């Protein structure tokens, strides 16, 4: 399996950002691309069919936006499916972001019990594990809680995940928070990775992601570019 990643740095400081371990407050608690590893779990047709905590197309949009942001920032991304021969292949929008990567197809309900997934995460050398998947109460909560107990600082992207009901999703988030997991949304993840607009290398990439998946922000950006490109008739 190929994983989209680059070698982690060994130093305690990366581009001026303190490398943290389980910091819950302060600058070090925020995400950086250099510390992050992303796991996208079971965004498959069977799971989408019983997704009732959110509007399904919103979750799919957000998951694809998150995956594209990870690629912009060169964050290692691991794709997983469960019994894909019956539950369906990974949604095409996600697979298209990493066309070269074959998702890890497993039988374990709990992704973190599959050694291939754990080994892929550990191989990155990163401790801030970001998870999104279907369903929140099962295939997200189980690995998040276990990984949090094994020394990883776990973040769950709640709006790129979803459950069989609003209650199921909400109770899973509460349970994970009690276990030390941090809930976050996909735009917050991308914003923390960017952190500074002076980081010009990634600006075009995140602007494209926002235009495609940022909802009203994308519409507003398209409008702004239209206005900038349209003559007003008052030019000197």
Automatic annotation (TrEMBL):
> Pfam families from the entry?
Isochorismatase (PF00857)
Q: Boundaries of each Isochorismatase-like domain copy?
A: 37-186
- InterPro entries according to UniProt: Hydrolase_YcaC-like, Isochorismatase-like_dom, Isochorismatase-like_sf
Q: What is this protein called?
A: Isochorismatase-like domain-containing protein
């Amino acid at each position: 399996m190929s994983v989209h990643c680059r070698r982690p740095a060994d130093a305690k400081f990366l581009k001026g950002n303190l490398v943290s371990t389980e910091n819950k407050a302060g600058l070090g608690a925020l995400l950086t691309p250099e510390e992050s590893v992303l796991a996208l779990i079971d965004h498959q047709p069977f799971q989408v069919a019983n997704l009732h905590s959110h509007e399904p197309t919103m979750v799919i949009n957000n998951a694809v936006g998150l995956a594209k942001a990870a690629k912009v920032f060169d964050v290692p991304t691991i794709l997983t499916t469960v019994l894909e021969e019956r539950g369906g292949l990974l949604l095409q929008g996600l697979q298209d972001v990493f066309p070269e990567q074959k998702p890890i197809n497993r039988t374990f309900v709990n992704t973190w019990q599959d050694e291939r997934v754990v080994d892929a995460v550990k191989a990155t050398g990163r401790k801030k594990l970001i998870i999104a998947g279907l369903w929140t109460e099962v295939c997200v909560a189980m690995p998040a809680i276990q990984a949090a107990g094994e020394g990883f600082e776990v973040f769950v992207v709640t709006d790129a995940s979803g459950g069989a009901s609003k209650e199921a999703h909400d109770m899973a988030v509460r349970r994970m928070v009690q276990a030390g997991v941090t809930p976050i949304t996909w735009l917050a993840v991308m914003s923390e990775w960017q952190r500074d607009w002076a980081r010009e290398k990634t600006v075009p990439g995140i602007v494209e992601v926002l235009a495609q998946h940022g909802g009203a922000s994308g519409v507003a950006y398209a409008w702004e570019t239209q206005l900038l490109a349209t003559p007003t008739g008052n030019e000197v």
